[in-house]
Structure formats: structure tokens, C-alpha cells
Amino acid sequence: MMLAELPPVAVIGEPVSMVDTPALLLDLDAFEHNLRQMAALAERGGLALRPHAKAHKSVAIASAQIAQGAAGICCQKLSEAYPFAAAGVKNIFISNQFAGPKKVAMAVELARQAELSVCVDHPAQVRALGEAAQRHGVRVAVLPEIDVGHERCGVADADGLLTLVDAIAAQPALSFAGIQAYHGGAQHISDWVQRRDVSRRSAELTAQFLRCLEAHGIRCSIVTGGGTGSAEFDVENGVLTEIQPGSYALMDRHYGSLEWLGTLQLQHSLFIAATIMSTARPGKAVCDVGLKSVAVDSGLPEVWQQRDADGLRYVGAYDEHGMLETGGDRRDRLGEPFLLVPGHVDPTVNLYRELVCVRRGRVEGLWNIDARGLSR
Question: Residue 306: is its pLDDT beyond 70?
Fold first, then answer.
């Protein structure tokens, strides 16, 4: 006996109230507003926009960003880039280091399909990639990463950068394309002034590396970095040539909690549709969004205070269950739908197969999360 086919989570044209839960909802009006905001910011600053696909993992979203003028995309992992390359995204930057023969083989394969650039911070990475690229007749653009304050990846001094530039020059199948200068920690500083000051310091460190390259007659055509939290400062600091924001298209509770005083006005566009599944205890309720439906590394999700959700507070996450406090509301809320804003979009998106795209209360589209689970 064949099993019944799993019914769809949503059907195009139906009201949002009919969407099964848990489901990942994308508010298209807010999403499109965010795309316009960041594209306009980059254009005013004269910078290229290279959105980070690790935030959404969706070909449809990347295509919408490119349609708004993005130069290409970033991917954090090689496997993550495969669906985008297969869909015809031509300009892909792997903005993270990789090591090992299988990873090098993946990079060579991607270079056959797309204009590929990669990030390095060790001569051995350069040598392995260069030798493989030459054997297979492909060319790869390479950007050494410099440490501009995050103390995670990237060379810490000018000598380390020059060593990498020389190693790239020694490989006929590789080309030096520029540098990556990314400060991940700067993105998440809550205070606007402190975030601005750390971003300025990052720009000053980047400028020092650039002056070293210039002193050695080395032209650096691409200086890439930045993110959602620092974008408004990156376009003013005069150092980067392109920015790499990712979360801006969707936003989450964490980014929404930052202090925003500049011209960049972003909206929450990503929500989790949830349903109250148990009201057995007074003052409490249980919903169907737990750890398998929302990431909590940046804190618990927040109830979106739409009509009828007043008084609900998400206070605990378990495998399949989310614990809610209902305040003084004595209604039996069993079966009540409501929305959550996830604390961190990137790992939350990775838990779902599709985005349910909604506009003005109705389902307008279903977009695949094509790179879901691709973390090699």
C-alpha cells in the first residue's frame, strides 16, 4: 500500500489563515521594501552590492536581489553555491576559507559553471587550489582575507597579506582580485554610535593594508566586506568597493533590536506561522514551533503583536513545542494562529524546505529554500 502524498503547507491564492504550521512566511511588501532600501544605499555610496545568500539560501531571493542591481552573491560554503550556479547565477564569491582535496575539487567544478572568486588566508590554500585549477583548465579569482578586528579568519599583518599575494601570482590559473575585510562582530553591536565607531576602526585598518599594497605597486580593484549592521557606515567610510549584507532582506529579532539612527529603514519580512496546540494549564499555552522549527542561538523568537496575539509571550523552546505565557487572558486559545519573529534568520531558514510568500493576507507564491542543509 502506497503512503498518501504529504499535503502542501500552503496553496497559492488561499488566505494566510489556511497555511499549515509551522511554516516560514515571507511578507513580500516588506521584503521588496528592504531590497530597495539596501540597493539605494549602495548606489548612493557608489558601491557594488553583493548580498550574502547564507541568510536565505533561496535562488528566488537571489534572483530578486540581482534584479535590483546586485553584482552577484556571496556564499559561505562551497556546497551552498551549487544550487545558485545551477540556476544560472554567474558571479559567486565564496567568502570563507576551505581546505582539503574534496573542497578544492568542488571549487574547480563551480568554476566551470560560474565566475567564481574565493577567500584565502593561508599559502597552502592558494597552492592547492592553483594546482587543481591548472590541471582542470579553469581560472579562479582569489581574495586574501585580512583581519580587521574580528579575530576569526584573515591575516593579521601586511607581511601575511604580501605572502598571499605572491603565492597567488605564482599560480598561473589564479588571479589576485582584491581583499576581503569583514568584521562580523561589528554587525551585532546594539548601540548605534559604538557600531559606527567599530566600523570606522575596521575601515582604518583596511586602509592600512591597502596602503601597503600600493607601496608595493599592487592594485586592489575589489575591497569587499561589511554586512547588514554596518552597511550604512561602510558606504560612508570610503574604503570598501562592495558590501555583503545578508539578513537585511528578511530581518530578525536580533537585528530588529539594534539601534538604527541612520537612513537605512528595514522591516521584518520573515515570520514563522504558529498554532496554539495545547491550553491545558492556566496562564500558559503550548504552540507547535520548537527547536526543530526555530533557531534560538540569538535568543527566543518574539511574538509578532498582530491582532489577537496581544498578551502572548514565547518563553521556552523544546524539540517540538514552544511554551507561551498568556498573561491575564483567560480565553481558551486552543487552535489560535499567530506569528513569530525568529531571533536569527540564517539557521532558522535552514530548517525549512520552502518560503510561503504572502501579500495582503493571501499566499502569492512558494519559493524553494534551495541550499537548505548544504553546509560542506
Answer: no
